Amino acid sequence: MEQRLNYLLNQFSAGTLTPEEKQELYFLVETEAALVSAEIAEMIAAQEVDAPFSAYPKWETVLDQILSIDKPKPNRLKLVVSRMKWVAAAALFTVFSLATYLVVTNKKKEHVFTSDVAPGGNKAFLTLADGRKISLTDAAAGDVIQESGISVTKKANGQLIYNVESANQAIDDSQTNTISTPKGGEWEVRLPDGSVVWLNAASSIKYHLNIGTSKHRKVELTGEAYFEVAKDKLRPFIIKTARQELEVLGTHFDISSYLDDPVTRTTLLEGSVSVANLDKSNSEILKPGQQAILTNGDFQVRDVDTEQAVAWKDGYFMFNNEKQESILRKLARWYNVEVEYVDPEAKEVMYYGTVSRFEKISKVLRKFEQTGEVRFEIKGNKVIVYKA
Predict the structure, then answer these.
(1) What structural domains and CATH numbers belong to the chain?
(2) Distance between alpha carbon 94 and the CA centroid of its chain, in Å?
(3) Tens digit of pLDDT for each residue in 241-274?
(4) What are the C-alpha distances in Å from 326 to residues 192, 330, 339, 343, 373?
(5) How far apart are CA 346 and CA 309, in angstroms?
């Protein structure tokens, strides 16, 4: 999120924002509760009304305040735009701030939902090699199970840790474990080779118990996961999904491969990855900051804001010119709800914005309603979507 804001603010100061980026910047700064307060909006408006811009040398401080309000991370965002550039940009910024402030303070009463749905949380199941299924949510901290020379421990924060009980003990290479999250669940696991995996909602990862010692480290993924693969130049780490296969030696990346999504996205944050479709007829090597989009066996590689791809792991939904249909698929998995469209054209509405994954769904839906293009009803476990 910080990277995206810095990018937009730099483009703003240079006067090179596209109309879409302007819409995104104004939305983030002026309507996102996590980024700006009513007091700051009022301060901007008051300064413009009470005195000319040139009389106020404190714009850098004001804008720094806007970008640091209610941020969960301990380090304040450091603006990369020089003070002189901000002085040049602040007058235009004030005009839009004032206009938005007047609109917001005179907006209609918010839609009141008659029911609500709580967000997801740490929920997962561990399926052992012998078929036994253990609820990790209900398991107490400490050893969960011991099998085939492996001990599995659940830490107090929920993370699973695998340890080989004896360095000299051979592990059957046919035995596998599977960790799966339901809708409304997420989980973190440290595999026997030291790699760490964060599973998003409605996802699963299957792996061999000898992954820490075998020549090739192989896992199977459904859904979405963020990987921090332990470096090992001699033993590649291979991930297979329903549509592609990815090979790395040690790196950080995110894969989204839900069966109800028409595309598979692989986003690289660090290192290098080789990604290929299942018949190996098409492949790409990604660099940090790139995303491979696989559709019908063909890849499209593009530069992206990697923070958006992994926002879910850090507790956010982050959307950048994304269709409502795609957004609501993500919400349906996290809140474990069904989505029904009364007006199919509502699927095409585009949205920019960032919201917490830990708010009730009504608060998230209100954000979308602020576009003036969609309206929602919540009936039990169903979200009904209308075109406004």
Answers:
(1) 2-105 (no CATH), 121-308 (2.60.120.1440), 315-387 (3.55.50.30)
(2) 31
(3) 999 999 998 899 999 999 999 999 999 999 999 9
(4) 34, 7, 11, 16, 16
(5) 24
As a whole number of angstroms, the distance between CA 279 and CA 298 comes to 11
Give the percent of the chain with pLDDT over 90.
Answer: 50
The residue type of 182 is P
DSSP string, 287-356: -TTEEEEEETTEEEEEE--HHHHTGGGGTEEEEEEEEHHHHHHHHHHHHT-EEEESSGGGGG-EEEEEEE
Q: What is the DSSP letter of 211?
A: G
Q: Is 228 exposed, middle or buried (0-12, 13-18, 19+ CB in 10 A)?
A: middle
Beta strands 316-323; 176-180: pairing state: unpaired
Q: Which residues pair with 264 in a beta bridge?
A: 294
pLDDT of residue 197: 96
Q: Which amino acid is at 224?
A: E
Give CA–CA dist 355/253, Å, rounded.
Answer: 22
Q: Distance between CA atoms of 178 and 206, rounded to whole angstroms?
A: 4
Q: Are strands 185-190 and 121-122 parallel, antiparallel or unpaired?
A: parallel
> Who has greater pLDDT, 243 or 87?
243
95 closest CA partner among 60, 66, 53, 126:
53
- Kindly report the number of other CB atoms within 10 A of residue 281's CB atom: 9
Distance, CA of 323 to CA of 374 (rounded, Å): 12
